[in-house]
């Protein structure tokens, strides 16, 4: 009898050793994936975000040279999202057919060329056209990367992986603000070009270079990755298949099925909050800091990095806790509520630079925590081929806030010399969007698998 017990104990010990060994191998594999994919995608996203929002720093000299009012500037910022909205879903659908490598290369090279071309605009109309074309060129990059990450990482790792990728937004603010300020401050009239022309040229060319590198560096998926062993591919595939088995089978793969799902519209309403808050942070931070009493554009660039540092730190903590608890909805509501508080307080402290930056930090926390948490929700809700269309559809329709908010803020700034009214609207929509996710999407609808 003791020998039997001893034998059973030995078998159990062997099983435990095997499980520990497999766990170690799996962790090593996902570290390998992270180090291979995230740094490059991180750099691409930094370049993308700097190209998209450097207009916020170019605003002061560009508006003077082209005769742009705040309303016209807001229209130019907003019209970017017309092209973005129109081409986002087709881009993700095309990516499913031709692969991530060609898609990301196409997007980056096109947006780099158009970003550089902004250096040569001479009228408000050319400004509007270039901004709309830039939006069309960039369409599909962000949702494409979110979709691309689902080809490699299971749901239990996704918030942390997404947050690491989205740290690029913070880095673009931390690096882009001071760099843009330095270019504008030091390259006035260099080689006969204005400082804002140098801004667009120097910050647009890296996208072209990175796009070419992407074609040779990225793989369409694990099956094409020669740097993975057959066993490693099997682990990745098995984990992703286990993810799919956890998801509800009620979400159709066709676009028309998504349109009939009322919960999709609640998710879209929830996501609208993120671009709205991002509009304040990305396009009006420099203006807000300047009006709070800081006049030197180099100092404005340095101070503009602070909300990004605070927001990035909060995002990492929020994402870690969200993955640990596998709770997404209330983590998202927390972010939107903090953003609403920041917007409301900013209307009272816009003329005090320390308090104004503190309010921008709250908005930064909302933007980064909200973005990092939100993009774990659609992949957990949609299954199979519906993920590509669903992610792009949510990202695309959610951008209507980005289309309208800059125009509203610009119009208010021109006619009332204040954006306070717009900040109140954004605060209200932020709370509403957070509630739509927290209360409108049941927890059981988000099928995620806890890591062992």
From TrEMBL:
<dbReference type="InterPro" id="IPR020846">
    <property type="entry name" value="MFS_dom"/>
</dbReference>
<feature type="transmembrane region" description="Helical">
    <location>
        <begin position="264"/>
        <end position="285"/>
    </location>
</feature>
<keyword id="KW-1133">Transmembrane helix</keyword>
<feature type="transmembrane region" description="Helical">
    <location>
        <begin position="133"/>
        <end position="153"/>
    </location>
</feature>
<feature type="transmembrane region" description="Helical">
    <location>
        <begin position="70"/>
        <end position="87"/>
    </location>
</feature>
<dbReference type="GO" id="GO:0016020">
    <property type="term" value="C:membrane"/>
</dbReference>
<protein>
    <submittedName>
        <fullName>Phthalate transporter</fullName>
    </submittedName>
</protein>
<feature type="transmembrane region" description="Helical">
    <location>
        <begin position="421"/>
        <end position="441"/>
    </location>
</feature>
<feature type="transmembrane region" description="Helical">
    <location>
        <begin position="165"/>
        <end position="184"/>
    </location>
</feature>
<keyword id="KW-0472">Membrane</keyword>
<feature type="domain" description="Major facilitator superfamily (MFS) profile">
    <location>
        <begin position="37"/>
        <end position="445"/>
    </location>
</feature>
<keyword id="KW-0812">Transmembrane</keyword>
<keyword id="KW-0813">Transport</keyword>
<feature type="transmembrane region" description="Helical">
    <location>
        <begin position="108"/>
        <end position="127"/>
    </location>
</feature>
<feature type="transmembrane region" description="Helical">
    <location>
        <begin position="384"/>
        <end position="409"/>
    </location>
</feature>
<feature type="transmembrane region" description="Helical">
    <location>
        <begin position="297"/>
        <end position="320"/>
    </location>
</feature>
<feature type="transmembrane region" description="Helical">
    <location>
        <begin position="355"/>
        <end position="377"/>
    </location>
</feature>
<feature type="transmembrane region" description="Helical">
    <location>
        <begin position="33"/>
        <end position="50"/>
    </location>
</feature>
<feature type="transmembrane region" description="Helical">
    <location>
        <begin position="332"/>
        <end position="349"/>
    </location>
</feature>
<dbReference type="InterPro" id="IPR036259">
    <property type="entry name" value="MFS_trans_sf"/>
</dbReference>
<dbReference type="InterPro" id="IPR011701">
    <property type="entry name" value="MFS"/>
</dbReference>
<dbReference type="Pfam" id="PF07690">
    <property type="entry name" value="MFS_1"/>
</dbReference>
<dbReference type="GO" id="GO:0022857">
    <property type="term" value="F:transmembrane transporter activity"/>
</dbReference>
<feature type="transmembrane region" description="Helical">
    <location>
        <begin position="196"/>
        <end position="218"/>
    </location>
</feature>
């Amino acid at each position: 009898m003791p020998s039997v017990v001893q034998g059973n104990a030995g078998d159990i010990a062997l099983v435990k050793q095997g499980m520990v060994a497999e766990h170690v191998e799996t962790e090593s594999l996902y570290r390998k994936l992270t180090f291979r994919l995230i740094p490059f995608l991180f750099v691409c996203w930094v370049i993308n975000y700097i190209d998209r929002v450097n207009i916020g720093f170019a605003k002061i000299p560009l508006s003077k040279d082209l005769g742009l009012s705040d309303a016209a500037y807001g229209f130019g910022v907003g019209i970017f999202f017309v092209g973005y909205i129109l081409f986002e879903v087709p881009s993700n659908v095309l990516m499913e057919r031709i692969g991530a490598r060609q898609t990301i290369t196409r997007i980056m090279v096109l947006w780099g060329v158009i970003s550089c071309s902004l250096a040569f605009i001479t009228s408000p109309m050319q400004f509007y056209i270039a901004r709309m074309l830039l939006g069309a060129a960039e369409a599909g990059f962000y949702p494409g990367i979110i979709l691309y990450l689902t080809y490699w990482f299971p749901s239990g790792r996704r918030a942390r992986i997404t947050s690491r990728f989205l740290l690029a937004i913070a880095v673009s603010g931390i690096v882009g603000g001071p760099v843009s300020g330095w270019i504008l401050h030091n390259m006035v009239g260099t080689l006969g070009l204005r400082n804002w022309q140098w801004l667009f040229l120097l910050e647009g060319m890296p996208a072209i270079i990175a796009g070419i590198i992407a074609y040779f560096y990225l793989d369409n998926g694990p099956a094409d990755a020669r740097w993975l062993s057959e066993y490693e591919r099997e682990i990745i595939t098995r984990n992703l298949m286990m993810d799919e088995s956890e998801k509800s089978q009620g979400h159709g793969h066709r676009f028309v099925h998504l349109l009939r799902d009322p919960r999709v519209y609640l998710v879209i309403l929830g996501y609208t909050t993120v671009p709205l808050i991002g509009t304040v942070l990305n396009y009006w931070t420099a203006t807000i800091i300047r009006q709070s009493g800081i006049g030197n554009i180099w100092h404005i660039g340095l101070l503009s990095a602070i909300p990004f540092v605070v927001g990035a730190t909060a995002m990492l903590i929020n994402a870690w806790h969200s993955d640990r608890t596998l709770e997404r909805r209330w983590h998202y509501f927390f972010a939107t509520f903090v953003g609403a508080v920041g917007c409301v307080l900013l209307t009272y402290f816009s003329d005090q630079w320390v308090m104004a930056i503190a309010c921008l930090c709250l908005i930064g926390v909302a933007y980064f925590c909200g973005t990092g948490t939100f993009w774990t929700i659609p992949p957990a809700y949609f299954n199979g081929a519906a993920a590509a269309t669903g992610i792009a559809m949510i990202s695309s329709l959610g951008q209507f806030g980005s289309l309208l908010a800059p125009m509203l803020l610009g119009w208010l700034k021109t006619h009332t010399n204040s954006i306070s009214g717009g900040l109140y609207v954004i605060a209200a929509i932020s709370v509403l969007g957070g509630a739509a996710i927290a209360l409108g999407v049941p927890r059981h609808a988000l099928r995620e698998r806890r890591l062992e």
